[in-house]
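We modelled the chain as a single entity of 292 amino acids. Its sequence is:
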Amino acid sequence: MARESRLATNNLQLFDLPAVSDLIRTALAEDLGRGDITTRLTVPPDARATGTLLAKQDGVLAGLPLVERVFAALGGRVAIAALAAEGDALVPGMRVATVEGPAADVLIGERLALNFVQQLSGVATLTRRYVDAVRGTKARVVDTRKTTPGLRVLEKYAVRMGGGYNHRAGLDDGILIKDNHLVAAGGVTAAVRAARAGAPHGLKVQVECASLAQVDEALAAAADAILLDNMSVADMTDAVRRIAGRAVVEASGGVTLATVRAIADSGVDLISVGALTHSAPALDLSLKIQLA
């Protein structure tokens, strides 16, 4: 299992990380280019506007602080008032936040602000569905490294807002010996022993197993955690029985909302779901404005 290092930042402090500030600046530069030509030609420079961020479908809110950060990067002339909290359940028509300031600034920042909140709320919403599906079992739903490049810290934050848990933040944050590592290292025993011999203090060693024979080998090599890769539910149940609490058990590979409950009922501790971040549809929200 992974340490908490790069993901342990307080949820609200996360939005002030240099990486997030850099991301916003890059995204604004991408969208603005040489300037918003439509707004410059059609909106009086002294016009002021108010707006309301509205939910248009059921979901879970995540990423609202980024709205404030986007407008701060545009000069900080737009005031944001949150009407909902991160992790709140949303329903169609629900007022999420209000904005007030120069109409030009509101229009320039509108799309980027919505893109961030829609993307992260989509991740949180899909995560909540998986979490609800395994409710009543001991299994925790965790994410993977299958994130949008550059958005990992934010998408993993959104997973937490949906009630899920984070796996490792990156390759430096945990030892996970996968199938190709096993080939390169010469098998389960050799890979686990090498990892344990060189692992920093406190860092657990996890190994991916595609068969029950590999599970037995990983146990004999004293792996701390075992990832059951694309196993049938029957084999997962057998693996949990064999492991008998001697290692953390994670299920992974092709997990869907239709299968996640049966996987949880096998007795695994964790279920990793790549879809939380690589396949979550954006949640539909809109910003409606009027002149102040």
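As a brief sanity check on the tokenised model: Residues 103-133 form the longest helix (31 residues). The two ends are 52 Å apart (CA to CA).
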